[in-house]
């Protein structure tokens, strides 16, 4: 059962973000297993903000694509900070090629969030959760945009529905990313086993190098 | 702490306080004899270290551990026993390992020199993942660079479990570099 999902790309300095509802027809049971890496109609225009060069390689100085995954956690914000600073530093290098930053928020499918609450959930709850997820996504996108602007870094911000691990790995392929930056929650081993670790999955499966940004040791 | 014999065979002008990221970025790169780990080092230097002038690199090699006195021996009719190995044999094995280490380190430092990165080297012994973890802490590294297959020489470890361990236990961000055939590297 295909869930209709939409992803929205927002140019960093441009208009207000609207995070369209993933019209995911998720009934409590079925989690959309195959992540639909959704095309974003507007990303092309948004990409005009970024150095629009061919994705393909030219000898030597070709475009570098850095993809950073964000959610509403502190850990991922730290990853975003690292990525933004890195892109800023790289862009500032003499003789550097173009660097493109793609900020990606994987909005988990509503059903997944709802399922974790337990069986027998009413339609109202689904709607509430859906709205909450949407709101969170908007917050995440907003924060990301502000950070980019503050560092004079241009980037594309996308929201894609689906399970984060797949959304991220697919996005790496789609954008031909050279580097994927993720945060690490610092979960203990047991929590990782139960909840799964997106950063672990990506470290093994993404088709590019992966940068895992940790929390400072003090936290743990 | 760690039995880290620091073989300083490179220049290390800025090898000082590594705390603040913006200031002098301190990079630890774990290397072994594999092409892959040298590629990881090279990629990291090009893509992550280069934008940070004044960054310093320490290549860390975990030396093969020469077992002390006994080697498991196959055959001899009865399925394996432990055979006592005379100290001279242990010595010569150890010397071989040291020779290997020198070669690995030298190759890694060459890569750093080619990329004009200031680098030193450290050879440590012990369990690879723990040794690297300790090195990262002791050196207050800002970044740890690994090839994606972990350290190939650790035959006991499951594929990737060294990198998994380090991703979760290292006290600094970890960069896992994929080999060129897996990545869209340019």
From TrEMBL, chain A:
Entries under Pfam families matching the protein: Usp
Domain UspA: 66-214
Superkingdom classification of source: Eukaryota
CDD domains: USP_At3g01520-like (cd23659)
SUPFAM superfamilies: Adenine nucleotide alpha hydrolases-like (SSF52402)
InterPro entries in the cross-refs: Rossmann-like_a/b/a_fold (IPR014729), Universal_stress_UspA (IPR006015), UspA (IPR006016)
Name of this chain's protein: UspA domain-containing protein
The species this protein was found in: Aegilops tauschii subsp. strangulata (Goatgrass)
TrEMBL record, chain B:
Domain of life: Eukaryota
Record-annotated membrane-spanning stretches: none
Pfam families, alphabetized: Usp
Cross-referenced CDD domains: USP_At3g01520-like
Record InterPro entries: Rossmann-like_a/b/a_fold, Universal_stress_UspA, UspA
SUPFAM superfamilies attached to this UniProt entry: Adenine nucleotide alpha hydrolases-like
Every UspA domain range: 26-178
Annotated PANTHER family: ADENINE NUCLEOTIDE ALPHA HYDROLASES-LIKE SUPERFAMILY PROTEIN (PTHR31964:SF124)
Name recorded for this polypeptide: UspA domain-containing protein
Organism field: Aegilops tauschii subsp. strangulata (Goatgrass)
């Amino acid at each position: 059962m295909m869930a209709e999902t939409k992803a929205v790309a927002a140019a960093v300095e441009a208009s207000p973000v609207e995070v369209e509802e993933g019209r995911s027809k998720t009934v409590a049971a079925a989690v959309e297993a195959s992540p639909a890496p959704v095309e974003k109609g507007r990303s092309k225009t948004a990409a005009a903000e970024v150095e629009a060069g061919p994705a393909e390689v030219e000898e030597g100085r070709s475009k570098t694509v850095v993809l950073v995954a964000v959610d509403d956690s502190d850990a991922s914000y730290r990853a975003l900070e690292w990525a933004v600073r890195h892109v800023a530093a790289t862009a500032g290098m003499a003789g550097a090629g173009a660097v493109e930053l793609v900020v990606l928020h994987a909005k988990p499918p509503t059903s997944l969030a709802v399922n974790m609450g337990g069986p027998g959930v009413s339609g109202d709850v689904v709607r509430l959760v859906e709205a909450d997820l949407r709101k969170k996504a908007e917050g995440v996108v907003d924060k990301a945009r502000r950070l980019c602007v503050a560092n004079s870094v241009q980037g594309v911000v996308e929201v894609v529905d689906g399970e984060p691990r797949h959304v991220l790995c697919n996005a790496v392929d789609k954008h031909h990313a050279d580097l994927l930056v993720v945060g690490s929650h610092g979960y203990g081993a047991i929590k990782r086993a139960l909840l799964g670790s997106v950063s672990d999955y990506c470290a093994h499966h993404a088709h590019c190098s992966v940068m895992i940004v940790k929390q400072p040791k003090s936290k743990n | 702490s760690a039995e880290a014999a620091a073989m300083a065979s490179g220049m290390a002008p800025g090898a000082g306080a590594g705390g603040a990221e913006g200031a002098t970025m301190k990079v630890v790169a774990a290397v072994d004899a594999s092409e892959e780990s040298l590629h990881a080092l090279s990629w990291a230097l090009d893509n992550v270290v280069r934008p940070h002038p004044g960054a310093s690199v320490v290549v860390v090699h975990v030396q093969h551990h020469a077992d002390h006195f006994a080697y498991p021996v196959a055959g001899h009719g009865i399925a394996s026993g432990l055979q006592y190995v005379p100290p001279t044999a242990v010595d010569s094995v150890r010397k071989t390992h040291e020779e290997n280490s020198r070669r690995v380190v030298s190759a890694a430092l060459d890569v750093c020199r080619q990329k004009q990165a200031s680098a030193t080297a450290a050879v440590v012994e012990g369990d690879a993942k723990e040794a690297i973890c300790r090195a990262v802490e002791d050196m207050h590294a800002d970044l740890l660079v690994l090839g994606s297959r972990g350290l190939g020489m650790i035959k006991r470890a499951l594929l990737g479990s060294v990198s998994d361990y380090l991703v979760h236990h290292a006290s600094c961000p970890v960069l896992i570099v994929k080999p060129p055939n897996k990545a869209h590297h340019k």
